[in-house]
Design a protein that fits this description.
By secondary structure, the chain is α+β, with helices and mostly antiparallel strands. Helix content is about 30%, strand content about 25%. The chain has 11 helices and 15 strands. Strands 1, 2, 3, 4, 5, 6, 7, 8 and 9 form a 9-stranded mixed beta sheet that branches. A 6-stranded mixed beta sheet has the order 13-12-11-14-10-15. Strand 8, helix 5 and strand 9 form a beta-alpha-beta unit. The chain is globular, with a radius of gyration of 22 Å. The two termini are about 20 Å apart.
Length: about 425
């Protein structure tokens, strides 16, 4: 797909930061450098995101049993509860440091130590993440040789290079930021910025995390509240994306909060107060935007597919049905072939485990009614072909069984997906 994704308009209270990203919030700097982990010297492969001082931090991680060494170490550094304080996030591409045993754990801890020395903090204040080939030991020399350079390169303008440095098969960097002015009691006039970066193109169906995402904010939010807001945002964004139904060994999503928003009153945003809900809504929008970018950039993708299911017996049933459609190779190849074959959608929801009666089902493809009452509806095939030229294809299902709803994002399945993954290690 061409660089970029179809961006949803932000809510009226949010302002998009032009060229915004992971270093847009006050109190953060970032960089991306080539350290030699990847062979191509033109490819950045080491990213640092650093707060001016230790700050609130939260994380979510893969549920894959074959989790990577950096996931284990970052969990430890967040006190085993996935929230606490941190100063920096260190991410490398080109090597996943997964399935590497005790050596991998030692190497992940050593990279955290070296980063801590370079920026002047303690080892446990550095969160680490890696992405790339599984099963290869992470070389330490690139970190030894280039972390000093990276620390020197840190700046408020370094977010773009950081977003480039975490890419693997991604075709474009995924970054976004918004600001809003608080109207909550006690926080009136505070100007909050939330920005982030994410990488992900293949091996994507997150489970309580994303591929690798780093989100920063200058909101003065308490660590536990930050974790709750992140969990809520991930549930409706990154956890609603699938490219190939595969959950990575390295999925990590970090949120750092500096508390340096202009006009911050000196008190903390805590769970369930009005300022919390403002923040949680804005965070959800940022995560949803980045999640859609991931689906847009699925390996070999030519179309973003949005699957909308409503009328389900419950939200859980709606998710089952939407996920079955989004993961179906037959649905995804039909979109690639510009074939309005609604029978494949019916097949997918029918095997999903969601409760419904087929005679209550309605299906639309790009706003064209193709199925009503579980039966085919005559439609204009030429008009459908025209609509398949749109960059975003919307598949809508009404199960007629209740009030539950869900939205998933995926992409079409193309010849290039097979080529990219057939050649991944080479």
């Amino acid at each position: 797909m061409e660089q970029g994704c179809i961006r949803l308009d932000p809510p009226p209270n949010l302002t998009v930061v032009v060229d915004g990203g992971v270093a847009s919030a006050h109190g953060f700097a970032a960089c991306g450098v080539h350290a030699g982990i990847r062979r191509n010297r033109d490819e950045l492969d080491l990213a640092l995101v650093v707060a001016d001082e230790p700050c609130a931090a939260a994380g979510m991680f893969t549920q894959n049993v074959f989790c990577s060494a950096p996931v284990t170490v970052s969990r430890e550094h967040l006190d085993g509860v996935s929230y606490g304080t941190a100063r920096a996030v260190l991410v490398n591409s080109g090597n996943a440091n997964a399935a590497t045993g005790d050596i991998g754990l030692a190497n992940a801890r050593e990279t955290a130590r070296m980063a801590a020395d370079a920026i002047g903090c303690t080892e446990d204040e550095v969160l680490v993440a890696s992405t790339g080939v599984i099963g290869a030991h992470l070389p330490l020399a690139p970190f030894e040789d280039h972390l000093g350079e990276a620390a020197h390169a840190l700046s408020g303008a370094g977010g773009h290079d950081a977003a480039c440095a975490i890419m693997t098969t991604d075709t474009f960097p995924k970054e976004y930021a918004v600001t809003y002015e608080s109207g909550a009691l006690g926080f009136e006039g505070m100007r909050v910025t939330i920005g982030g970066m994410v990488k992900g193109s293949g091996m994507i169906m997150p489970n309580m995390a994303t591929m690798i995402a780093v989100i920063t904010t200058d909101a003065p939010i308490a660590p536990e509240a930050a974790h709750r807001a992140l969990k809520q945002a991930v549930a409706v964004s990154f956890n609603k994306v699938t490219v190939d139904s595969d959950t990575s060994t390295n999925d990590s999503c970090f949120l750092l909060a500096s508390g340096k928003a202009p006009g911050a009153p000196g008190s903390l945003i805590v769970d369930r107060d009005p300022a919390y809900f403002e923040f949680a809504d804005a965070l959800g929008h940022v995560c949803t935007t980045l999640a859609r970018d991931m689906a847009c950039d699925g390996e070999g993708a030519t179309r973003l597919i949005t699957v909308e299911v409503r009328g389900a017996a419950s939200d859980e049933d709606a998710d089952l049905a939407a996920r079955a459609v989004a993961n179906s190779p037959l649905v995804k190849t039909a979109v690639f072939g510009h074939d309005a074959n609604w029978g494949r959608i019916a097949m997918a929801i029918g095997k999903s485990g969601a409760a419904f009666r087929q005679e209550d089902v309605s299906i639309d493809i790009m706003g064209i009614a193709v199925c009503r009452g579980g039966l085919t509806v005559e439609f204009d095939e030429d008009e459908a072909l025209k609509r398949f030229e749109n960059p975003e294809i919307v598949l809508s299902v009404d199960l007629g069984a209740g009030e539950g709803s869900a939205t998933m994002w995926t992409c079409d399945l193309t010849h290039d997906y097979v080529t990219i993954n057939g050649d991944y290690r080479t």
